[in-house]
Each structure stands twice: as structure tokens, then as C-alpha cells.
Design a protein that fits this description.
The protein is of the alpha/beta class and 198 residues long. The protein has five helices and 13 strands. Bound molecules: zinc ion.
């Protein structure tokens, strides 16, 4: 681990291991609410195009809807996530973890609705049904360790788990077992749980 990685810290909910891109698409969490859940998503714009800056523009509210036919439905959409992990492993941060980002929509987990209130949203550059790459798993693991040290995070789940039937990301090709193996002993419960090894 190099010196730069060791020095990554938090400042007002901004992680110095990420490139900051402050989005206006956020708001306060309920008073006294601390993030205890991480929700993993996947996104690419246009869907399946794993490069370019369209996702960044979407979360910043600056996407030109005329740029591509598939962007028409995104006109006026105000969404964000706290983090975006690119295929290269680069991490961008759009919203302070102290604030509420707008990533989960209508959602519930363990009988509680409105997951945005107490969660952190991490988008992976990708597409449901496609694999993710090693650089993304490494970056995600590093980010999750940093989050677990800074916030009382208990569980890591997918968007598909908090909005079943409505959302399907990150999808079947996301390797939850890989996260579980890498983050053993970190105090995080990775969902879905695998059967314990015999
Ligand atoms: Zn999602």
C-alpha cells in the first residue's frame, strides 16, 4: 500500500481517496441519523457504454438530454449517489456522506422504508448482466473499509435487494462472494449471505 493510500482521510464527509464533484442533488439526513447501510448500484450512459462523462453530468444536473436518444427520459431527473467507481478504479464523490443522496428511490430494507435516509449509495460503472472488473472490486473494497471506519455501517446490499422487482442492479454478475472474502473481519455484513463453509 503506497503512502497516498494510507493518507486518505475524511473531511466533513468527503473522502480524500475520491475526486470530489459536488452535486446539488442532495439534502439533509433526518436529525441524528447516521448512515448504517451501503447500497451498491450499477450505471452506464448510454446503457452499456462504459466510458465518457455522461454519468458525471447526470449526477451534477448538467447532462444534455439531446446528446443521445436514450437520454430523453433523463431530462429533468434529479438523482445522485455518494460515490461512482469507474472501470479504471477511479472513485468520484458527488455528495458528502453526512448528507442524503438521491439514489435508492422507493425502497425498503428490514421493514423500514426510504433507504436514502440512512444509506450511502455507491454506483459502479457497468450494466446489469455484465461483469465488473478487478480494479473496481479493489477500489470498492478500499472505499468500504474507509466507510466502515468512519460510519456505523452494518450491511452492504444491492439496489435490487431494497427495491426488488423495480430495480435489478448491480445484477447477477456482481460477485458478492468476492466482497465477502476480501472484507472478512471488517465488521460488515455483505448481502446476500453465503452459506458458511463446511
Ligand atoms: Zn440503482
Amino acid at each position: 500500500m503506497n503512502a497516498r493510500r494510507l493518507q486518505a482521510r475524511w473531511r466533513e464527509g468527503w473522502w480524500t481517496g475520491a475526486r470530489p464533484c459536488a452535486s446539488p442533488h442532495c439534502g439533509p439526513r433526518p436529525p441524528g441519523e447516521l448512515p448504517s447501510l451501503v447500497i451498491v448500484h450499477s450505471i452506464s450512459l448510454p446503457p452499456g457504454v462504459l466510458r465518457g462523462d455522461a454519468v458525471e453530468h447526470l449526477f451534477l444536473g448538467t447532462l444534455d438530454a439531446g446528446r443521445h436518444a436514450s437520454f430523453a427520459d433523463l431530462r429533468g431527473l434529479r438523482v445522485s449517489a455518494h460515490f461512482f467507481v469507474r472501470r479504471s478504479g477511479e472513485v468520484l464523490q458527488f455528495v458528502s456522506t453526512h448528507e442524503r443522496a438521491w439514489h435508492a428511490g422507493v425502497s425498503s430494507w428490514r421493514g423500514r422504508e426510504g433507504c436514502n435516509d440512512w444509506s450511502i449509495g455507491i454506483e459502479l460503472e457497468g450494466l446489469e448482466g455484465r461483469s465488473f472488473v478487478a480494479a473496481q472490486y479493489r477500489a470498492l473494497q478500499r472505499l468500504l473499509r474507509a466507510l466502515a471506519r468512519h460510519h456505523p455501517i452494518r450491511e452492504v446490499v444491492g439496489h435490487e435487494h431494497v427495491a426488488p422487482g423495480r430495480k435489478h442492479d448491480p445484477g447477477a454478475r456482481f460477485e458478492w462472494s468476492r466482497l465477502q472474502r476480501a472484507l472478512g473481519g471488517c465488521g460488515l455484513s455483505i448481502w446476500p449471505r453465503l452459506d458458511p463453509s463446511p
